[in-house]
């Protein structure tokens, strides 16, 4: 009598597809948060496996800070078009102009300003669920998340007010104005993501691979030189072979020196790494509580 064997990636994929189908069955107006980054790329593959040959039953939503890497936005738009998916983009710049988001004096990064922009999009489209690519291995606040992460009527997250998830049963009940964030990749690691990308032969933006870029050393990390990140007095611009591990605001996304120009090289590099991927994000390094504070206010 033959038996069907599921390997590690099969189990993670099966679990995530189950969560995606629960979202489609339990919520009226869900959306997938899609930035074009590696985690959301995996989410789209899982959505394809969960719902094809039907159309994806939920749109894609992206909050554009205006400080994104151009390569990321190009990939985002092209991938959504390839899938025939509806892509909704809401810009922080527009939210500032409309008075929805208000930058503090001297504030350069727009990561915090994504919060009111996102919450305004939730209200505009009456989304009751947002599916994101966060993983518990990323950092401490992420590790406190459940698969179904409850948000109150203000879009805020309280880690002490979350629902039990015994036997893979998820409580999706919401009162008017409340919202759920759902994270199908919760049990995945950075290494799992890259191994899945290799297995599924998924395309990812080129900035994940080694490329030459002008950089400056600031705050213990390499930052890309752009109009938004000009060199400061005394800083030396260097041409380096670098790549990104995690992509965020171009102002705070650190680059790592790397020769990795193939997925196999990245997998070997990640397996040997002793610093978490978000260790290269200046906005997270500024304070151990930075991410948790933002999540409590309504962040992804």
Structural commentary:
Helix content is 34%, strand content 15%. It is built from ten helices and ten strands. The mean pLDDT is 86. The chain folds into two domains: 195 residues, Rossmann fold (3-Layer(aba) Sandwich), CATH 3.40.50; 79 residues, no CATH class. The chain is globular and about 55 Å long. By secondary structure, it is an alpha/beta fold.
Biggest sheet details: 6 strands, mixed
- SS element count, helices: 10
How are strands sequenced across the largest beta sheet?
A: 3-2-1-4-6-5
What name does CATH use for the topology of the largest domain?
Rossmann fold
| Overall number of domains | 2
How much of the residues is beta strand, in percent? 15-25%
Global Rg: 19 Å
CATH architectural name of the largest domain = 3-Layer(aba) Sandwich
Helix content: 25-40%
Poorly predicted regions are: none
Q: How confident is the prediction overall: mean pLDDT?
A: 86
The CATH homology group name of the largest domain: HUPs
Distance between the termini: 47 Å
Reading the helices and strands in chain order gives HEHEHEHHEHEEHEEEEHHH
Question: Which structural category do the helix and sheet elements fall into?
Answer: alpha/beta
Counting DSSP E segments of at least 2 residues, the number of strands comes to 10
- Reading off the top of the CATH hierarchy, the class of the largest domain is best stated as Alpha Beta
Shape: globular
Describe how the helices and strands are arranged.
Layout: H1 8-26, E1 30-33, H2 38-51, E2 60-64, H3 70-83, E3 87-91, H4 92-97, H5 114-125, E4 129-131, H6 140-143, E5 148-151, E6 179-182, H7 190-200, E7 211-218, E8 221-224, E9 238-243, E10 256-257, H8 263-272, H9 282-285, H10 290-297
Parallel strand pairs: 1-2, 1-4, 2-3, 4-6
Antiparallel strand pairs: 5-6, 7-8, 7-9, 9-10
